[in-house]
Design a protein that fits this description.
Blueprint: E1 5-11, H1 16-25, E2 32-39, H2 45-53, E3 57-59, H3 65-78, E4 83-86, H4 95-101, E5 104-109, H5 121-127, E6 132-139, E7 149-156, H6 163-185
Parallel strand pairs: 1-2, 1-4, 2-3, 4-5
Antiparallel strand pairs: 5-6, 6-7
């Protein structure tokens, strides 16, 4: 068994990427284990996933961003977290938080960065008549979706694709590339 790194996941929604990583983390050779899940959404389905797998989780309201970040940092330090993964976390972290954590922070984004940073990526790719879209895993910096890219995965956009069908195709690739990216940063 490898010496696994303690990781924390920030989530806001369904937790499908979280589920994929949990499955990967069951392999003894996978470099991380999930020591904490933090959500800014009390109704996030990812919290149910945390409960199902017995992973410690915390909910902190994001109404006060400073308090959310302070409470999250405190909890991560207490648990000696060395990697923070943003998996469908729908808030922007402050440059102060990024600096204070001073470990690795990675994010999965549903576009082929640097194209379509921010929100509404599927809609914008379709509106722009792109032939391809996809997903990117990147390091988080204080500049939105601009950190060094770890891995990308491309999907073809078909003529009959909708936002929903494109999202499904990209999400399927996200579930693969996120684990692969985590492995690659520890090689």
């Amino acid at each position: 068994m490898v010496n696994k790194v303690k990781a924390c996941f920030f989530i806001s929604g369904n937790g499908t990427n979280l589920s994929a990583i949990i499955k990967s983390s069951r392999d003894n050779s996978f470099p991380i284990y999930i020591g904490l899940i933090i959500s800014n959404n009390v109704n996030a389905k990812g919290i149910k996933i945390a409960k199902k797998y017995g992973i410690p989780f915390k909910y902190f309201s994001h109404k006060n961003k400073v308090k959310f970040e302070r409470d999250s940092l405190c909890e991560m330090r207490k648990r000696k977290i060395k990697l923070l993964c943003l998996a469908g976390f729908m808030k922007i972290l402050s440059s102060n938080f990024i600096r204070c954590f001073n470990n690795k922070i990675i994010n999965i984004h549903p576009s082929l960065l640097p194209k379509f940073k921010g929100l509404n990526t599927y809609k914008r790719a379709l509106k722009n008549n792109e032939k391809f879209s996809g997903c990117s895993v990147h390091y988080v910096t204080s500049k939105l979706d601009s950190g060094k890219i770890i891995k990308k995965r491309r999907v073809e956009i078909k003529q009959n694709d909708t936002e929903a069908s494109l999202k499904d195709k990209i999400l399927c690739e996200e579930h693969k590339i996120f684990s692969q990216s985590i492995i690659s940063i520890f090689q």
